[in-house]
Amino acid sequence: MAATQAEQQATAEHADRILVALDASPQSVAALRAAAELAALLEAELEGLFVEDINLLHLCGLPFGREVGSYTASVRQLNDRAMERNLRALAIAIREAMEREAAQLPVRWTFQVRRGAVVAELLAASQSAAMLSLGRAGRRRRRTLGSVAESVVRQCSRPVLILGEEGGLTRPLSVLYTGSEAADRALRLAIDLEVRNPGGLRVWVWDDPAAGLPAERLQAHANARLAEVGLQTVAAVIGERELPDLLDKRNKGTLILPGEHSALLSRWVGPTILVP
Amino acid sequence: MASHRPLAPEALYTECRLDHMQFDTTDDLEDSGEFLGQDRVLKAIDLGVTIKRKGYNIYALGPTGVGKHTLVRGFVEGRAAQEPAPHDWCYVYNFALPSKPRALQLPPGTGVQLKHDMEQLIEELRTALSSAFESEEYQTRRRVLEEEFQERQQESLKELQEQAKEKDLALLRTPGGLAFAPLREGEVLPPEEFQKLPPEEQKRIEEEVEGLQQQLQRVLLKMPRWEREFRSRLRELQQEVSGFVLSDLMEELYEKYKDLPDVISHLQAVQKDVSENLGNFLESDEAKAEARAEAAPVMPDGLKIAPALRRYLVNVLVDASEAKGAPVIYESNPSYLNLVGRVEQMAMMGALVTDFTLIKPGALHQANGGYLILDALKALTSPYAWDGLKRALQFGDIRIESPVQMMSLTSTVSLEPEPIPLDIKVILVGDRMIYYLLAQADPEFGELFKVAADFEDEFVRDEETTQQYARLIATMVRKENLLPFEKGAVCRVIEASARAVEDAERMTARMRNVVDLLEESDHWARAAQAERVAAEHVEQAISARIYRSDRVSRRMQEETLRGTILIDTEGEAIGQINGLSVIQMGGYAFGKPTRITASVRMGRGEVVDIEREVELSGPLHSKGVLILSSFVKGRYAAERPLSLGASLVFEQSYGGVDGDSASSTELYALLSAIARVPLNQSLAVTGSVNQYGRVQAIGGVNEKIEGFFDLCAARGLTGDQGVLIPASNVKHLMLRKDVVEAAAEGKFAIYAVETIDQGMEILTGLPAGERDQDGRFPEGTINRMVEDRLAEFAERRRQYARSGDEESESETAG
Question: Are strands B425-430 and B58-61 parallel, antiparallel or unpaired?
C-alpha cells in the first residue's frame, strides 16, 4: 500500500509538464489536443515545442540547396531568408493553434521555439517533462511511424503519446501487461488516468510462453493492482492469436504499451501511449 | 251557342292501377332489367365500346339524375369483366439516361414480383458483398496490393536514400518536398563548412546532388501513375470478388424473367452498374444505421434504402395482379395531375429532389387497357386537365409532364419518364349544354368523342312500361334498404313521376328524384311505425315536400287574400281577366293568377303591349301580342283599316313576363274591351293563340290550375269557378287530389278549349257567332259586337280625317 503511494507521488512529481512536439501538421494538432486533454486531467502544464530544423537552414545556405516538389516533382531553389520567414510564420500559426486548444479546456501552457536537430532537441526537452506527445509522422500519410517519431520512441526515457491524424485521447484505455517494469509503469499510468476520469479500462495480460512468469500470476498481480484502487476491471489473458482483434481499428480507444512492445505501433494506428 | 261542359274528373288525373300486376308489396316483384327505356343510349355505348379505333370515345349526355353514371358504369363493368386484365406497368432507372426513366410493360402480377425480387437482390447483395469484402481472401489480397504499392514507393525512395548515404548525402523533407544535402556526423554540413572544402570536393558534391535530384524527379513523376495502377488493380480485385457473388444472384433472375426481353436488358444494366459501383453496398454499418434512424419517422419504405441503391428499385405504377377483367376507373377529381400522373418531389437537406420511384400514376394509367369515366364539367373546370386528356387521347400515350414545368420560365431538374402507350375508352358524363358547347367550340372534341349517348328524360307511360317502372321501383327500394312499398304506394310513386314531367302519358327518367321520394316516403312510414310504405305515406312525403318549399307562393296568396294583389274570383268586368303564370323556384314550381287588362280607343291599329314598352317583356311574350293583334286585324278588319288603339297590361307585375301562354288571355281581355262585354271573373285562362284564333298548348298547366284553385279555395269555392286550358293540354293533366275532388263535386270546373270563340262563349255566356251568307256575324253575338265597334272606330276616324283635310286645305287657302 505504502509502495503504491510512493509510486503515485513519483508520477505526480513528473506530472507537472507535458511536452508536445509541434510542426503544424494535422497529426501534430491531434497530438496537441490529446496532450492538452491529458494535461487537464493530470493537472499538468502544457509545453509546446517547435523545433526549427537546423538541417533545413543549413541546406538553404548551400549553393545547390534545392527541393524537389513531392507532388509536382519540379525543382525549386531554396533560399535561407525565405526559409526563415517560413519558419517564423509556422511558429506563429502553431502558437495560435495552441492558444485556441489550451483555452478550451483550460490548461496552463507555455510555448517555445528552439533551433537545432529535431530529435535531439525533443529528447533534450523531454528530460524535464512527464510525457512527450507527438504525431505519428510528418506531412505524408502513412501507416508506419515517421523517422522522427521512430527515433524519439527508441530513445525517449519518458512516456510518449503518439497520435494519428484522427481524434484525441479516446476511451476506453487498453493496457498490455507483460510483467516487465515498463509494463508496471504502463499499468500504473492507465489506472491513474482511469481513476481521475473513469471512461473504461481494459487490461490485457500478455501470455508469452517464453517469459519467466506464468500468465496466471501476472493476471493476479494486475487484478490486485486494480482492486487496490477499487476498480471493477478484471485483467484478461491474451496471446498472439487474440492480438489482431485487439488491434482492429474498429476498437476505438487508446492503447497503452510497455516500451518493449513498440513494434506494435506499426499495427495499430489509434492513439497510443508508449511507456519505457 | 254550344254548351260547354267542364272536363270529367277522370280526365284530370290519370290514375295508375297496375291491374295486370299481381303483387302485394315490392318484395314480391323481381328486379327489373337495369336500364329501363334507354335503348338509344345502350346502343350508342355498345357501339363506342365495340369499335376499337381512335376517337371512339363516348360522351353520355343528359340531365342530372337520370342515372347516367349508374348506367354507364353498369354497362361498362359488365363489358370489362369479359375482357382481359391489363398489363402491369413499372418505371425503372434508366442507366444510360437517368433523367428519362424507362417504362416496362409486364404481364399482370409480374410488376410486384419484380419489385420484390429487386429489393431482395439489394438486400442480398448488401450482405453477400460485405461478407465477400470482409473475407480473409479479399482482405489478404488487398493488403498485399497496398503493401506492394507502399513498398514500391518506399523502395524507390529508399534506393535513393541508400545511394545518397553512400555518397554522404541525406534525403531531407522540406516544407514543399524533398531535398538532398551533404551530411557530416548525422547533420547537414553548415554552409560555412562547405565553403572551406576544396573546390573539386565542392563541385563533386554539387554534381552528385544534381544527379540524385534528377533521379528523385523521375521517381516522383512515376508515383501518380503507380497510384492509378494500384487503384485499377484494386478495382479489378473487387470486380473479381464481387463478380462471383453478383453473377450467382443475377443468374436466378435471368432464368425467372427469360421470356421478358425488356426485363432481361434492365437486369443486365443493373448487373453492370452494380459491378461499377460496389462502394455503394459497402458503407459502414454505423452510417447505415444512422441513415435509417434519420429516415425512419417520415419516409416511406422505399426511401429508407440508401439513395445510391434506390436506382435498382422498381416503381410499380400499375399493378394488375388482382384485376378481374379490364379496369373501370371513375376519377371523381379529374385534375391534371390526377389524370396524367405526377413526379413527386421530396425535401432533402432543404432542396427538392426526385427520382423515378417518386413517379405516381394518374387515372389514365390505372384505366389503361380499360375504361375511364369522368365528369365532363369537372374535367373542363380543372386547369389543364381537359388539354391533358385530349393530348393523351390524340397521341395515344401518357406523358407525365408537370404543369408547373410547362408554365414556368425556370427549369428545375426533373424527370421525363418514358411515355406509356395508351389504350383506353374515355366516357365523359355530363349535361347536354356542355356537349353542344364543346361540339361547337372545340374542334378536337368531335374527333376524340365520336359517340354521343343521349339519355331520355322521360319514358312513355303505357301498360308495359308502367310494369317495368314498378319493378324498377322495387329494385331501388331493395337497393336503398327501404321498407317494402305496397302496391298502392308504388302506384302513387308512378303517378308522382308522371306529374314530375307534367304529362299523364309519360314518366320521369330522373330516377334520383324518384329515389328521393321513396326515401322520404320510407321516412314517414317509419315515423308512423308502419312496416310497409303505404300510399298515404307517399302522399305525406309529397305534401311535406310542397310544404317545405311553398313559402313564397303562400305569401303571394296571402297578399292576394288581403287585397294587396288584386285578383277577382267572382263577378264580371269588361276588359279584365285572370291570367295564369308559373313561377319556378329551385326545384319547386307554382302557379300564380295575374290580372290582365285591356283598354281600347280609336287609333291607327296599334296594340300597345305595355310590358314591351318598358322592356319588361320577353321576346316570346311580344311575339304573342303581335300574333293576337294580327288575329284581330285578320278577322275583323280585313276589308278596312283597323282604327283601333289598344293597350294590354299585366297588372301588378314588376318582374318581367315571358312566354306566350297568356296570349289567348290577353286576346279575351281585348275582345271584351272592344265589344264592351263583361268577362266572368270567377274563371282564369291560360293558352297561347295563333293567327287564326286556335288555342295552343302551354307548359305548367297543372301548376297554373292549382294556383287558381288554391286562391278560390281560400276564399271559398262558389261552384262557378274554374280554369280554361287548351284542349291539347288535357293529356298533361295530373292534378292534385283536392282539385280533382272539387271537380268531381262540381265545385271547380276545368274547360278544355280549342278556339278563341269557345273561350269567349264560356267567359261571357254569349254565343261567339259565325259569318252568314252575307259575310256578317249574327246580331247579339260577340263577334258582331266586336266588328260593329271596330266599324264605328273606323267611321269616326274617317270623319276625323276628312275634317282634318278641310282644315289643312283652308290653311293652304288662307
Answer: parallel
Is B587 exposed, middle or buried, given 0-12, 13-18 or 19+ CB atoms closer than 10 A?
Answer: exposed
Best probe of the B interface among A64, A75, A77, A266, by most B CBs < 10 A, is A64
φ, ψ of residue B709 to 5 degrees: the values are -60, -45
A143: its cell numbers: 501507416
Count CB-CB contacts under 10 A for residue A59: 27
Count CA within 13 A, CB hemisphere, residue B607: 25
Instruction: State the architecture of B14-32+458-549 in CATH terms.
Output: Orthogonal Bundle (1.10)
Measured between alpha carbons, how far is B592 from B402 in angstroms, rounded to an integer?
56
For chain A, list the domains and their CATH numbers.
Answer: 15-163 (3.40.50.620), 173-275 (3.40.50.620)
Task: Mark yes or no for CB contact A55/B181 under 8 Å.
Answer: yes
Rounded-to-integer distance, Cα B792 and Cα B640, Å:
12
Residue appearing with cell numbers 367550340: B441
Q: Do A62 and B181 touch (CB under 8 A)?
A: yes
Average pLDDT of the segment spanning B411-427: 87
Q: Give the cell for residue B426.
A: 374515355
Look at strands B695-696 and B688-689 and give their pairing.
antiparallel
Active site residue B256: no
Give CA–CA dist B390/B506, Å, rounded. Answer: 39
pLDDT band at B193 (very low <50, low <70, confident <90, very high): confident
Query: ipTM of this model?
Result: 0.74
What pLDDT does residue B413 have? 67
Q: How far is B149 from chain A (nearest CA, A)?
A: 12
Pull the grid cell for residue B77: 363493368
The CATH number assigned to the domain with range B38-86+323-455 reads 3.40.50.300
**Residue B660 contacts residue B627 (beta carbons within 8 Å):** yes
CB-based contact, A75 to chain B, within 8 Å: yes
Per-residue pLDDT at B812: 44
Euclidean distance between the first and final Cα of chain B, in Å? Answer: 58
pLDDT of B665 above 80: yes
- What distance lies between CA A74 and its chain's CA centroid? 35
Contacts of B481 (CB under 8 A, 6+ apart): none
DSSP 3-state of B606 = strand
Q: What is the pLDDT of residues A224-258, one digit of tens each?
A: 888 888 888 888 888 777 777 777 666 678 888 88
In this complex, do A75 and B217 lie within 8 Å of one another by their Cβ atoms? yes
Residues pairing with B679 in the sheet: B573
Q: Bridge-partner residues for A112, per DSSP?
A: A49
Measured over the CA atoms of residue A58, residue A63, residue A67 and residue A68, the dihedral's sign is: negative
Contacts of A61 in chain B (CB under 8 A): 190-192, 194
Architecture of the domain whose range is B566-795: 2-Layer Sandwich (3.30)
**E strands present in B443-522:** 451-454, 458-460, 506-508
In DSSP terms, B348 is beta-bridged to B351
The single residue of B643, B661, B663, B688 carrying the catalytic annotation is B661
Tell me the shortest Cα–Cα distance from B207 to chain A, in angstroms.
9
Query: B185 by DSSP, 3-state: which?
Result: coil
Residue type, B477: V
Q: Domain map of chain B by residue range?
A: 14-32+458-549, 38-86+323-455, 110-316, 566-795
Grid coordinates representing B224 are 501518380
pLDDT tens per residue, range A32-55 = 888 888 888 888 889 999 998 888
Contacts of A140 in chain B (CB under 8 A): 173
Mutate to test the interface with A, among B150, B167, B188, B215 (most CBs of A within 10 A): B188
To the nearest 10 degrees (0 to 180), the angle between helices B68-80 and B39-50 is 40
Choose between B1 and B677: higher pLDDT. B677
